[in-house]
Amino acid sequence: MRFLKSGVVLAHLCFSWTVSASIPFMIVCSKGEISKDKKKETEAFLMWKESGYDGDVSCKDTSGWQKISIKHRGNSSMKFAKKQYGFKILDEEGNKTKVALGDFPKNSNWVMRSPYIDRSLIRDGLAYNLGRDLGKQRGDDYAAPRTEFIEFAINGDYKGIFVLTEKIQHGRHHVPIQKADASDLDHLTYIAEISSQKYDFKSKRGTMIRFNDPNEKKLKKLAEKDPYAAQELRKRIKNEINHFERVLLSDDFADPERGYRALVDFDSFVDYFIIQELSKNIDGFRRSEFFYKAKDGKFHMGPYWDFDIAFGNLSFYGMAKTKGWSHTKHWSYLRNAFWFNRLLKDPYFAQGVHRRYAELREEGNLLSWANLETRIDSMQTRLGDAPERDRLRWDGTHKFTQRHIMNTKKRSEDLQGNVDILKQWVQERLKWLDSQMGLNGEY
Predict the structure, then answer these.
(1) What is the pLDDT of residues 294-329, one digit of tens each?
(2) Nearest-CA neighbor of 165 among 148, 184, 140?
(3) 3-19 average pLDDT score
(4) Which helix (H) or strand (E) holds 136?
(5) What is the mean pLDDT of the chain?
(6) Helix axes 347-360, 415-437, angle to 10 degrees
(7) DSSP readout, 296-314?
């Protein structure tokens, strides 16, 4: 058991993808209706049930439950019948506090990602789980957020399966950067995101950038106390990103000392490219593309985020096909994958991708089919009998786009069939990537 500061007992969450009879069950009871305005938080209470779903979703007595604030989150998902949520842990006075949920490290901000349009239910979890191990191989302990499957009910309404996910942020157990400090700009670290819709500034090249940590909300709050400090932080982040893109476009961009390699963590860029192309993720190069400036003064790619319409789970722009590159596509709405298209013009980067991919495809390594199939099977087993409850809850609620566009062209009526479809897609994708990388045979 883990105890909160308020004295409430939280059930122990099993973090590994081991076989289990059931996944944790989480109940939230809010004091009012959760606003459709994603900026508005609603006070609520949370209870964990370690033993899993037992049919009791009532909110009759919340005494002793953990206080939280909860809100809707997401972009496209706000149009889905099954919403996504974000919540913060609060102390008895209503101030934000940190707790350890099961085997997760202490945290105050959490995300409830919904696998509503992913009929296999495991695409996000698979990408993050694989991404974390990719990072560990190169010495990066936080290439992707930690996740856990849970079942969820809110205000007496059973909502099905969600993926409890850490929010991308800095911290000792999260992205290894320090809090932004305007008094020490020469050692400034931060997290940012390439976006295609909402953004905080456009680079001189036209790249849409969102501040993540510090985010715009934090910068505005800082501006109330110290306008100059907030202005300097914004200016420095903008200047550094503009400088990176300027170097990337320069004639000597491939020079190891004067070019981009002096500004980036090379291995993290290589791994990022591989995981996005393996999953053929439409979002990976154009939006939800997180990067951070680390304590070493270089840009690192990650953490990975947003894979629910990856791995063949999108039927337009050719994204369901196992052949073809994602980074070469150019869509006016999502813009082009400028950074990686340019990087691949450097033979050193292209060769780095080939070498790393060949290594990962070796027998017993992370991208061997035996390893990937074991991961997929373990995650499916971990879900237990929860998928049938989730299916019954949401069956018939998908709109046309969710049925025919934001989904695989092949569909099954049960989880096993949809997992088999995912497996077949990944196998065929690996075969095509092998052919492009000069590899042959089964791995």
Answers:
(1) 999 999 999 999 999 999 999 888 899 999 999 987
(2) 148
(3) 35
(4) helix 123-137
(5) 90
(6) 130
(7) TSSEEE------TT-TT--
On the 0-12 / 13-18 / 19+ scale of CB atoms within 10 A, 61 is exposed
DSSP track, 182-238:
GGGGGG--EEEEE-SSS-SEE-TT--EEEEEETBHHHHHHHHHH-HHHHHHHHHHHH
Q: Are strands 147-154 and 25-30 parallel, antiparallel or unpaired?
A: parallel
How do residues 351-378 score in pLDDT, each as one tens digit?
A: 999 999 999 999 999 999 999 999 999 9
pLDDT beyond 70 at 138: yes
Residue 251 has φ and ψ, to the nearest 5°, of: -65, -30
> Comparing 17 with 338, which gets the higher pLDDT?
338
Q: At what angle do helices 123-137 and 266-279 cross, to 10 degrees?
A: 150
> Per the omega criterion (within 30 degrees of 0), is the bond before 24 cis?
no
Geometric angle at alpha carbon 261, from 258 and 262, rounded to 5°? 60
Beta carbons of 253 and 202 less than 8 angstroms apart: no
pLDDT-based confidence at residue 9 (cuts at 50, 70, 90)? very low
Domain ranges of the chain: 2-118+147-166
CA pair distance 71, 43, nearest whole angstrom: 9
- Paired tokens of 350: 């292209």
> How far apart are the C-alpha atoms of 344 and 333, rounded to whole Å?
23
Gap between the Cα atoms of 30 and 155, Å rounded: 7
The pair of three-digit structure tokens given for residue 37, joined into one six-digit string: 């305005």
Tokens linked to 351 = 């060769």
Tally of CB atoms within 10 A around 273 = 26
User: Which has the closest alpha carbon to 129: 364, 308, 375?
Assistant: 375
Residue 5: pLDDT over 70? no
Average pLDDT over residues 268-283: 96
Among the residues of 332-414, which ranges form H helices?
Answer: 338-343, 347-360, 369-382, 386-394, 400-404
Q: How far is CA 25 from CA 20, 56, 78, 147, 388, in A?
A: 13, 10, 23, 15, 15
Torsion of CA 158, 162, 166, 168, to 10 degrees: -110
Question: For 160, left (φ over 0), alpha (ψ -120 to 50), or beta?
Answer: left
Read off the tokens for 310: 């990856």
How large is the angle between the packed helices 216-225 and 227-249, nearest 10 degrees? 140
Q: Are strands 66-73 and 84-89 parallel, antiparallel or unpaired?
A: antiparallel
Q: How far from each other are the two terminal CA atoms of the chain, in whole angstroms?
A: 41
Residue 13 CA to residue 27 CA, distance in Å, equals 14
Cβ atoms of 135 and 302 within 8 Å: the answer is yes
Tokens of 41: 């938080």
Query: 240: which 2 tokens?
Result: 């550094």
